[in-house]
Write a structure and sequence with these properties.
Elements (H helix, E strand, L loop, with lengths): L2 H14 L7 H12 L8 H21 L11 H13 L3 H12 L18 H13 L3 H5 L8 H4 L39 E2 L14 H8 L6 H21 L9 E3 L5 E3 L4 H18 L1 H32 L3 H4 L4 H26 L7 H8 L5 H14 L4 H7 L4 H8 L43 E2 L3 H9 L4 E4 L8 E4 L6 E5 L13 E2 H14 L6 E3 L1 H4 L4 H9 L1 H7 L2 E5 L1 H6 L6 H9 L7 H8 L4 E5 L2 E4 L13 H9 L1 H4 L1 H5 L6 H9 L10 H5 L7 H5 L4 H12 L1 E2 L36 E3 L4 E14 L5 E5 L4 E6 L10 E7 L9 E9 L17 E13 L1 H9 L9 E2 L1 E10 L1
Parallel strand pairs: 7-9, 7-10, 10-11, 16-21, 20-22
Antiparallel strand pairs: 1-3, 2-3, 4-8, 5-6, 5-9, 11-12, 13-14, 14-15, 15-18, 15-22, 16-17, 17-20, 18-19, 19-20
Helix pairs in contact: 1-2, 3-4, 3-5, 3-6, 9-10, 10-12, 10-14, 11-12, 11-14, 12-14, 14-16, 16-18, 18-27, 25-27
Length: 893
């Protein structure tokens, strides 16, 4: 090793006295690798300067979270750094000037403000980030895993170039690049086109690791653009070849654009993944040992790629640096590339999950890495959301379709949204509220089929409508196109079609006002298509539900019977009609239905679920929901499965109607998430029937809060996760835990019915973390659990605080969160907790009464606290002792 490397190696142990990271020896080994390559433009003293400056700078930020000012003269760590700099760097003024420039303030005046601690990987990240800025030379990265300082990469050998296939060979003919799975447009794995940076892929041996892929193709003296191109190639072709154990020609995935550039396109990735799935399934079923070896390889490759993506995102976000930004990619280009790469990896993980479960034994670590989420998965999802909103999608769509699947988000983003009026019509919408879909009845106007039409309105005979409702009968409209007035008969007199629609499309009205003649003719033709031998009989709220209060209540009470007894329910939605076709791919039609206004409304949930037959009006025909269920398709990705799952009223109607009566609310909550209604008090009425509750009992109350209380008491069996929402709660004694609405999208799974609603409160079991009485402050509360020697932080979410909140316990499901994790909890006050924080129970079966206070989140901060205490710094705020008692019988009031 050169003298330069030896000197550097001697410096590192002095820095290691700070004991900032368990990865120190690994980092020193990586630095040794780094110094083997040259020549470098910067000398060793400059490298030492950069290390010290970054240590100082990061230390400032870690101290800011403590609320204490930092002085380089008094602080022991700062004094060590300063003295070390003085002994190694002659120009101390340069050191301090560089630090001052980084912090934008003198080093002895650092104002305290809230910032979280860095944690155990503090030094690990700092060395990588510093090296990326100081030494952009390819020699730093070429011998290592893509962007990662890992033992696997440092110990890289050319054994990776001697592949030993563990699964059968591919059946794909790469000479036919237009191979498809089922149809000309059918795709299971879909992502936006990604600009290809020019990485050279073809002409090399197969590598079964991404680090081997990168090393084999590295050319010394390359530019920053070459670095980024090679990194991108390793994250795509390198990943797919290592996982699938086949050589993939670049022409199979890269396509030429008119401007002469290339893009990586998703259309053939689906064929690769499908072929891979079949090969894997065969291998794992016939040889579990080979399957286990394959799982180990997949886990390693996926972990390497996800770490590389995390690292690239971190460096780009913090320093506008990284492979892609150094190569000149714009922020939008970086976001697009990271989204595509993450989506490919998400598809691979989803595929592996489908094969491995039940066939191959795996370790807990492999379970977490292959089936768990990764640190920036949500960040990538947010990038997709931002791009979708820029394209005109409503924010509510993101919360409705995310479900943890990047494939599904990518597929959605690849399609244009339905625009009802103007491109920016959703700019005032939120994730939990679509302003466009909600209507104001005071200003609402029923629309004609065309904007220029001025035909007259047709109204049913009101005396017939009112007479039917007064006698508990369902009024049915009978009419023929262009032939005189409509008549009214009873539902029991013959078959009829029930029309399901959303008022935002312009078809809303009342019996008193009626509908335009043009709309009537349109409805009659659609009805006669489904009932060709009938008299054109149908029910629609716009003609059969009066505005008069008493009659409207009677019609609502009969609503469930209306849809249950109909020969079929016909869905008329403007976005579905405009964007769905009988000739379109299944996935696209499912997506359009899943993202339609019809799927976003509370009332339409029961209309779809209670239907004996459900049909949708498409642009070029009427389609039965059964034709949208591809039972024989080979489900290969989380995205495609999620699309099927989203069509809940059709595909899963029987699941709700025939569910265990004691589990109805838990099942329904999953279907209600994200749905809205223009009148909040109607929510409980709209879902009452399929929960086994007579809506008449709820209509006896006018206020939504009274209806919710009555519904919960009628249902009785509910999921205790209802407590863990940051929603508005009821205020009545015994029901302070109950939400105003059941449509929240942030409620944690599962929805199992495991609690009993009574007039006195909610009876169930919870784990309880008890402590001395505290008041919730903006900075949160630090808690130390002595038996487990773990630290936690309690904090309220936005909107959770309402004045002073005092409590002495929190309710948890399945104990405290693991390291680096957080989970929802409920703050309560319990009278039988002593001043020292210990829960007193006469016996294990005794009932503990808990007064609900608010929703909180608890985060495991054990590693962050350990990092702080290594410097001898105080923990802010000072922790209080918390004691965990498991499986306590409670009554939450």
């Amino acid at each position: 090793m050169s003298g330069q490397a030896t000197t550097l190696n001697n410096d590192l142990p002095e820095l290691s006295r700070l004991q900032l990271s368990p990865n120190w020896e690994l980092l020193r080994s990586a630095m040794d690798h780094f110094t083997q390559f040259g020549p470098h433009s910067l000398s060793h003293p400059n490298l030492c300067l950069e290390i010290l400056v970054d240590l100082t700078w990061k230390y400032f930020y870690s101290r800011r979270g403590t609320g204490t000012a930092v002085s380089s003269q008094a602080d022991p760590v700062m004094l060590f750094l300063r003295n070390h700099a003085a002994s190694r760097i002659t120009n101390l003024q340069r050191f301090e000037a560089t630090v001052n420039a980084r912090t934008s303030q003198p080093i002895h005046v650092i104002p305290p403000y809230s910032m979280s601690e860095f944690g155990d990987e503090f030094l690990h990240h700092f060395v990588k980030e510093m090296l990326y800025r100081v030494y952009p030379s390819k020699s730093v990265l070429s011998r290592l895993d893509p962007g990662q300082w890992q033992e696997d990469s440092i110990s890289y050998t050319y054994e990776d170039l001697d592949p030993r296939p563990m699964i059968p060979p591919t059946e794909i003919d790469f000479e036919q690049p237009d191979l498809h799975i089922r149809g000309p447009s059918s795709q299971f794995v879909n992502f936006p086109d990604m600009t290809w940076l020019g990485g050279q892929h073809d002409g090399y041996s197969l590598c079964l690791s991404v680090s081997g892929y990168m090393n084999l193709r590295y050319m010394s003296g390359g530019s920053r653009g070459d670095d980024a191109a090679l990194w991108q190639a390793a994250m795509t072709f390198g990943l797919l070849e290592a996982i699938m154990e086949i050589k993939i020609p670049s022409t199979y995935l890269l396509f030429l654009r008119p401007d002469g550039s290339f893009v990586l396109n998703s259309r053939n990735v689906s064929a690769l993944v499908l072929d891979w799935r079949r090969r894997l399934d065969t291998a794992c079923r016939h040889n579990s040992i080979a399957g286990g070896r394959w799982v180990a390889r997949v886990e390693r490759v996926i972990t390497d790629v996800l770490d590389a993506l995390d690292d690239e995102h971190d460096i780009h976000t913090r320093y506008a640096s990284g492979h892609l930004s150094r190569a000149g990619c714009s922020d939008r280009e970086v976001a697009n590339i990271l989204c595509v790469l993450a989506t490919i990896c998400d598809a691979v993980k989803g595929m592996a999950m489908g094969v491995i479960r039940g066939l191959v034994p795996i370790t807990d670590v492999q379970q977490e890495r292959l089936f768990g989420t990764w640190s920036h998965q949500w960040t990538v999802a947010v990038l997709y959301r931002q791009m979708m909103q820029a394209d005109g999608w409503c924010p509510t769509i993101f919360s409705r379709i995310h479900g943890g699947s990047l494939c599904l988000l990518a597929y959605t983003r690849a399609h244009q949204p339905f625009i009802r009026n103007v491109p920016d019509e959703h700019q005032h919408c939120r994730e939990d509220h679509c302003a466009v879909a909600c209507i104001d009845t005071a200003t609402y106007r029923t629309r004609h089929v065309t904007g220029s039409c001025q035909c007259t309105f047709i109204r049913p005979p009101m005396d017939h409508i009112l007479h039917s409702l007064e006698h508990g009968n369902i009024p049915i409209i009978v009419a023929e196109p262009h032939r005189g007035p409509v008549t009214v008969r009873l539902s029991s007199d013959g078959p009829y079609i029930a029309i399901s629609h959303v008022w935002a499309d312009g078809l809303g009205s009342t019996s008193e006002d009626g509908l335009p003649s043009c709309q009537m003719d349109r409805l009659i033709k659609l009805v006669q298509h489904l009932l060709p031998d009938s008299e054109g009989a149908f029910w629609i709220d716009s003609l059969c539900v009066p505005a008069e209060r008493a009659a409207r209540k009677r019609a609502i009470i009969l609503m469930a019977q209306t849809y249950q007894q109909a020969e079929a329910v016909l869905v008329i939605d403007a976005s579905i009609i405009a964007q769905c076709s009988v000739n379109a791919p299944l996935e696209e039609n499912l997506l359009r239905i899943a993202t339609s206004s019809w799927m976003s409304r509370v009332w339409t949930l029961q209309e779809g679920i209670l239907a004996r037959r459900l049909h949708f009006v498409f642009f070029d025909g009427v389609v039965a929901v059964e034709d949208l269920q591809d039972r024989d398709a080979f489900q290969i990705s989380a995205g495609q499965r999620s699309l099927s799952f989203l069509l809940t009223p059709g595909i899963f109607a029987n699941r709700l109607v025939h569910s265990d009566p004691t589990d109805l609310l838990g099942t329904a909550m999953g279907e209600l998430a994200g749905r809205t209604t223009s009148k909040s008090e109607d929510e409980t009425v709209a879902i009452a029937v399929f929960l086994g509750v007579d809506p008449a009992h709820l209509l006896a109350y006018d206020a939504g809060k009274d209806r919710m209380k009555a519904l919960l008491l009628e249902v009785q069996g509910i999921p205790k996760t209802l407590l863990f929402t940051n929603d508005q709660k009821l205020t009545e004694p015994g029901f302070r835990w109950a939400p105003h609405s059941l449509t929240s999208t942030d409620r944690p799974w599962p929805y199992d019915v495991d609690a009993l609603c009574t007039a006195e409160g909610l009876l169930t079991e919870f784990d309880i973390l008890s402590f001395a009485p505290v008041e919730l402050l903006e900075g949160g509360i630090s808690i130390y659990n002595p038996p487990m020697q773990t630290h936690y932080r309690l904090a309220g979410c936005q909107g959770a605080l309402d004045g002073e909140i005092q409590f002495n316990a929190i309710l948890l499901i399945d104990g405290l969160p693991d390291k680096h994790r957080s989970k929802p909890c409920a703050a309560v006050h319990i009278s039988v907790i002593s001043d020292s924080g210990v829960l007193s129970q006469s016996d294990e079966e005794s009932l503990v009464i808990c007064e609900y206070r608010t929703y909180l989140e608890i985060e495991n901060r054990t590693d962050a606290v350990a990092f702080t205490t290594r410097f001898g710094l105080p923990i802010r705020p000072s922790p209080i002792a918390g004691f965990l008692t498991e499986e306590v019988h409670v009554l939450v009031t």
